[in-house]
Amino acid sequence: MNLCREVAERLLAYRDGELEETEEPFIKEHLQYCPSCLDLLNGYDEVCDVLHRLQPVNMPSGVLERCRERLRREAAGEPPLHDHGDSCSAE
Amino acid sequence: MTAGACLTSDAPNSALLDPDLLLDRYGERIYRLARRMSNSDADAEDVMQNTLIKILRKADSYRGESDPMGWIYRITLNEARELHRKRKRRPAVSLDALPIDFDETQHAVGVSDIAGRPDKSAMAGEIDDRIRDAIQELPDGYREAVVLYDLEGVPYAEAAQLMGLSLGGFKTRLHRARLHLRNVLERFWADRDAATATTDGEAKS
């Protein structure tokens, strides 16, 4: 189980390709005979598959124009047209 | 991909001082990050506007790297946190409820049948919605880890720096956030299995 702990600590980086190459053989070997650690890796894969296929974010129409107007007023020293309630306070 | 990899390498910092250039160069990326950190389009727009104003106010004193995208990301994350705080939103998942780094008991018990799950593609829309909601329910630092690395493609070291964490601290957050999301998926399939069993039972009776 201590070995599993060591593997689990490195599994995230292994899965993401961020592990030191020298440590990879140790992980690969362990995964061949430990179904629990392999399950942990499969779980990471499953989550990442979903995350990577999430729809891209599209900016709704009008956002850029409203931001442009807000920035223009800020640059000109004019107050915002309306208060969002969350505006930056002057520093 | 790095936070600045999608920038042109010669992006001058003067773009930070010009509202039009600022929006043209960075607007879409600021909105994308703001939206992924927010619950709604309206909140994302608030975060974006506040981020842009902050940038404009601080641009004069910016002395960072020639590529300011990391700086911009940091301001965006701070504004998203600030809006959450103002909305008095508490994460739906408390820190204590997140999976621990390594649970020996849990580890020894279960191996789930991921490959054996039926008809995953047909459920993709529902699964995506469940995961998107679950990301929003995470505490700030955990949501940021997933959004920066898994959705924005910011490498570990850079994401850790943006969040003001050590590399180890960042990995721990990403690890626990993913374990939580995995548990959400497990519950999704368990709910679905239960619903299917109920339907089958009703059909037979």
Explain what the structure shows:
The complex is a heterodimer of chains A (91) and B (205). By secondary structure, chain A is mainly alpha-helical. Helices cover 62% and strands 0% of the residues of chain A. Chain A has a domain at 2-53. Chain A has helices at residues 2-15, 24-33, 35-53, 63-75. The radius of gyration of chain A is 24 Å and the shape is elongated. The N and C termini of chain A lie far apart (54 Å). The model of chain A is unreliable at 83-91 (pLDDT under 50). By secondary structure, chain B is an all-alpha fold. Chain B folds into two domains: 13-86, Orthogonal Bundle (Rna Polymerase Sigma Factor, Chain: A); 95-204, Arc Repressor Mutant, subunit A. In chain B, helix 1 packs across helix 3 (69-86) and helix 5 (124-137) packs across helix 8 (167-204). In chain B, 38% of the residues are buried. Classes of the chains: A mainly alpha (91), B mainly alpha (205). Chains A and B meet through helix 1, helix 3 and helix 4 of A and helix 1, helix 2, helix 3, helix 4 and helix 5 of B.
Briefly summarize what is shown:
The complex is a heterodimer of chains A (91) and B (205). With 91 residues, chain A is mainly alpha-helical.
Describe the protein's topology.
The complex is a heterodimer of chains A (91) and B (205).
Chain A: H1 2-15, H2 24-33, H3 35-53, H4 63-75
Helix pairs in contact in A: 1-2, 1-3
Chain B: H1 19-36, H2 41-58, H3 69-86, H4 104-109, H5 124-137, H6 140-151, H7 156-163, H8 167-204
Most extensive protein-chain contact, per-chain counts: A-B, 47 and 53 residues
Helix-residue proportion of chain A: 55-70%
Unreliable sequence segments of chain B = 4-12
Report the β-strand fraction of chain B as a percent range: under 5%
Which fold name fills CATH's third level, the topology of the largest domain in chain B? Arc Repressor Mutant, subunit A
Mean pLDDT of chain B: 81
The protein's oligomeric status is heterodimer
Structural class of chain B: mainly alpha
- Give the end-to-end Cα distance of chain A, rounded to a whole number of Å: 54 Å
The helix-strand sequence of chain A is HHHH
Number of helices of chain B: 8
CATH homolog superfamily of the largest domain in chain B: Winged helix-like DNA-binding domain superfamily/Winged helix DNA-binding domain
Categorize the overall geometry of chain B: elongated
- Overall tally of domains of chain B: 2
